[in-house]
Amino acid sequence: VIKSLKEADFEDPVRLIEKHPQLAGLKIERIKRRIKFLDRLIRLYHLEGISGKEIGENFPQLFGYNKYRIYFYLRVLKGMKKDDTITPKELFKKGRALIVNNPYLIFSFLRESKPQNFEELEKILTSIQKLSKEEKYKRITEIKNELSNIIESLQKSLKENAKPDPYDEFLLKLAQRLERLEKSEKEKKEKKL
User: Fold this and answer.
1) What gap in Å lies between CA 58 and CA 16, rounded to an integer?
2) Cβ atoms of residues 32 and 63 within 8 Å
3) Mutual orientation of helices 118-129 and 103-113 as an angle, nearest 10°?
4) What is the pLDDT of residues 90-124, one digit of tens each?
């Protein structure tokens, strides 16, 4: 595994595996595919200034995540990057608290609080940390159960307004990513059966 990570140009694979032992269980082909995938998303969301490999070294848990979950997180980061003085590297460092949280939980708070920049998002992430497990579970379940209604409501609102709300457009894209994530997770479970 260490040799494979070195061949994939990771600077310190030993430290990486010591810090994140779950990497040792992943196939190097998957890691390489995720790096290419992250590079494509960086270009798609105009977050140049950081590479997929750098993101992977800083957030190795992403290598094990479903690609729709990664889409979701990067779209949130892009949506909060209103200030061009913040570099993509700084954005990803600040985004650590975002990436470790459940995407349905993040969506619940984004929908409720409507943050307009990363500082406001950081306040939300702090409040999430203070929630009990029960409250987190309740919010996640509510979003999962209401997701199709939320999407329908956002689509209707955007269609009816002559000047669509950019935040509603942002929420719709996030909700659609969650819908795809949910579908992908169900398909994965069905294959295991």
Assistant:
1) 9
2) no
3) 120
4) 777 777 778 778 999 999 999 999 998 888 888 99
Closest alpha carbon to 77 in 53, 110, 104? 110
The model's pTM: 0.83
**HSE of 136 in the Cβ direction (CA atoms, 13 Å)?**
13
Q: How far apart are CA 54 and CA 16, in angstroms?
A: 12
| DSSP states along 67-136 | HHHHHHHHHHHHHH---TTS-HHHHHHHTHHHHTS-HHHHHHHHHHH---SHHHHHHHHHHHHTS-HHHH
Please choose, from the candidates 57, 63, 125, the residue with its C-alpha nearest in 3D space to the C-alpha of residue 94: 125
pLDDT digits (tens, 9 = 90+) for 138-193: 999 999 999 999 999 999 999 998 888 999 999 999 999 999 999 998 898 888 77
Longest dimension (CA), the chain: 57
Residue 68 exposure: Cα atoms within 13 Å on the Cβ side: 16
